[in-house]
Amino acid sequence: MDISQTSDLWWKNAVFYCLDVETFRDGNGDGTGDFRGLTDRIDYLAGLGVTCIWLMPFYPTANRDDGYDILDYYAVDPRYGSLGDFVEFLRTARDRGIRVIADLVVNHTSAEHPWFQASRSDKSSPLRDWYVWREAIPEGASQSLVFPDKETSNWELDKKTGEYYLHRFYNHQPDLNIANPDVRDEIRKIIGFWLELGLSGFRVDAVPFLLETEGIAQAMDLDPHDWLRNLRSFLGRRRGDALLMGEVNLEYEAVREFYGDSGGDELHMCLNFNLNQALALALVREDAGALMHNLRAMPTLPKDAAWANFIRNHDEWSLDKLTEAERQEVFQAFGPKPDMQLFGRGLRRRLPTMLDGNQARLRMAYSLMFALPGAPVLFYGEEIGMAENLEIEGRMSVRSPMQWSDRENGGFSEAASDALCRPLIRSRKWGPSAINVRDQERDGGSLLIWMEQLIRHRREMPEIAFGKWSLQPIADPAVLAVSYEWGDRRSLLVHNLDSSQKQVSFQMASRPDKASFVDRLGEGGIDVRADGTITLVLGGYGYRWLGLI
Ligand code: MG
């Protein structure tokens, strides 16, 4: 296998880092993060080994849903700087070998967007049909609500024109009507605009809702999946190596459909919510069973497609795929108090607090996530072990300011961050005085330096991205062993989810042609016996990344 042939599929072996410009770094001292501040920290991200930044929405916004309610798709929120500042940031990132993708939020707009203002102004408005209007709530309308604490219906009555509009999210986020070809043209134009400025692709928000035609009155002149195919081919024509990473939180079988046919002609990647939730259960139980079961159920993807793996993201840790009993089991262990839970389906916490700050268990969890089939996605602050701030409402609890040092938290003063409604964490154990980048950069034993090494090794193991994976037969249910094979590259990644030491012995499904593995992360190696048997010892929460080098 020639590594040079893989560069067009850069995203398969990428290390993604999701951040919100607003909370990452304030460069001009006005109390809000901005592109100037982010640009100043590109070298930090390059040093960490990140290869692709995923920007949460940075467009002008009504800001009632942290930027996911957009007012203008062709501009930068003036609080973050100008379009010029954005381009300077993009150029600097590219100069350091870092690509940038951004959230594409086109299922809905803000209700204050000029398109919706025009649409709602009059039934005969030329933009009336850009949104989904009905005289009455349709029979059999979906009762499933994304935010059951705030909304009681997906339809809102507009008093002025006496009709109802569709909103799958908050009522201030009306859904765009994708049955309207003009809307689809506009979405292509938005994609084209940002690709032209240099983005390497998009994380597509709420894909199943975006393709949904429920409630749309007129017949759609093309199948919703044909529309996604059409978007993908447009993207490819404008920029051959651009990426579409989708947010598709559905069962595996349904997610598979969003990758398209066997050649892969819709999304390139999907965030793997199924595996993520199995990981939660496995961590709680200190037992690999749920993960093994999930990995076995994982559908085969088209050749040029991949999963994106994560532990925590910017939302609550949704556990909606687990059974009620399993979910309660995770709640009990990781967030027993009501204010740690959200919508009855998830946890609004970050991982280190859920693990009571246990460093060995935390590192094992990240090592495990990086070792699973797919590309890893980090959420800002995970590399230093940041905690959530339960003082901040709802899902925003995990979006507190980045902790750069004990004094500079995202560059925000305490007063400014209070004004942002993102108060700093005041706890001595979890606040910026205890957990920050500056201290960890100077401490060889810190989580940050450990993460940097983990990323280095992951990047140097393209077999995880491009190879064939298989589970190795391990008798001990606490231990998970995944092997990868790509050309003459072989690796074996073994994790002990339990706190006690384990010795495991197993026969590799196919015997490697070399007699010993080298431990990439630690000392020594492991011999393979003539019959293909391997014996190894793992400490409590131990992990070994073994390679035939
Ligand atoms: Mg600022």
Main attributes?
Immunoglobulin-like, binds magnesium ion, 8-stranded parallel beta barrel, alpha/beta, single chain, 6-stranded antiparallel sheet, 18 helices, 549 residues, TIM Barrel, Oligo-1,6-glucosidase, domain 2, 22 strands, globular
Give the topology.
Layout lengths: L15 E4 L1 H4 L10 H6 L1 H7 L3 E4 L27 H13 L3 E6 L9 H8 L11 E2 L20 E4 L4 E4 L14 H17 L3 E4 L2 H5 L12 H15 L4 E4 L5 H6 L11 E3 L1 H13 L3 H9 L8 E4 L7 E2 L5 H11 L6 E2 L3 E2 L3 H4 L4 H13 L3 E5 L34 H6 L17 H5 L5 H13 L2 H5 L1 E4 L7 E8 L2 E8 L5 E6 L8 E4 L5 E3 L5 E6 L4 E5 L2
The protein binds magnesium ion (MG).
Magnesium ion (MG) binds next to loops.
What does this protein structure show overall?
The protein is α/β, with parallel strands linked by helices and 549 residues long. Helix content is 29%, strand content 17%. The chain has helices at residues 21-24, 35-40, 42-48, 83-95, 114-121, 181-197, 207-211, 224-238, 252-257, 273-285, 289-297, 324-334, 351-354, 359-371, 414-419, 437-441, 447-459, 462-466, and strands at 16-19, 52-55, 99-104, 133-134, 155-158, 163-166, 201-204, 243-246, 269-271, 306-309, 317-318, 341-342, 346-347, 375-379, 468-471, 479-486, 489-496, 502-507, 516-519, 525-527, 533-538, 543-547. The strands form five sheets. Strands 1-2-3-7-8-9-10-14 form an eight-stranded parallel β-barrel. A six-stranded antiparallel beta sheet has the order 15-16-17-22-19-20. It is globular. The structure holds magnesium ion. The site of magnesium ion has 6 residues, from loops.
